[in-house]
Amino acid sequence: MTAKEKTEVVDDGNMLIVCIIFEGDHSNHYYGFVLKMKVVPKGEGSLVKYTIQYEEGNEHGPDPQQFMNMITMCFDKLDAHLVAEAAARPN
């Protein structure tokens, strides 16, 4: 699958990143996807809340699950990278 991504918001104060996914394989059936990643401090660490919004272009399009699986895979890789980075930092 191919797509273009544009980072719309990087808000360090609110620990929020918003990306727009446009063009590419999904554009025949969906107007687009908006990905939001917000970091929420919790105890000694943090949680990351991922939100995925999409708008169907027509009611006969395929189930968006295939796109959600791809996006989830990207988030899983990001999570693993951040955990590995945190573990490698000296205390």
How is this structure best summarized?
The chain is of the alpha+beta class. Helix content is 26%, strand content 44%. Strands 1-2-3-4 form a four-stranded antiparallel sheet, with no helix packed on it.
H/E element string?
Answer: EEEEH
For CATH, the homologous superfamily is named as START domain
**Helicity level, as a percent range?**
25-40%
* Terminal Cα span: 40 Å
Structural domain count? 1
Radius of gyration, in angstroms, nearest whole number: 15 Å
At the third CATH level, what is the topology name? Alpha-D-Glucose-1,6-Bisphosphate, Chain A, domain 4
Please report the total strand number as a whole number.
4
> What is the C-level CATH assignment?
Alpha Beta
Main beta sheet strand tally, sense and closure: 4 strands, antiparallel
Strand order of the largest sheet: 1-2-3-4
Second rung of CATH, namely the architecture: 2-Layer Sandwich
- Distinct helical segment count: 1
Family: Belongs to the MLP family.
Pfam families: Bet_v_1
Domain Bet v I/Major latex protein: 3-85
InterPro entries: Bet_v_I/MLP, MLP-like, START-like_dom_sf
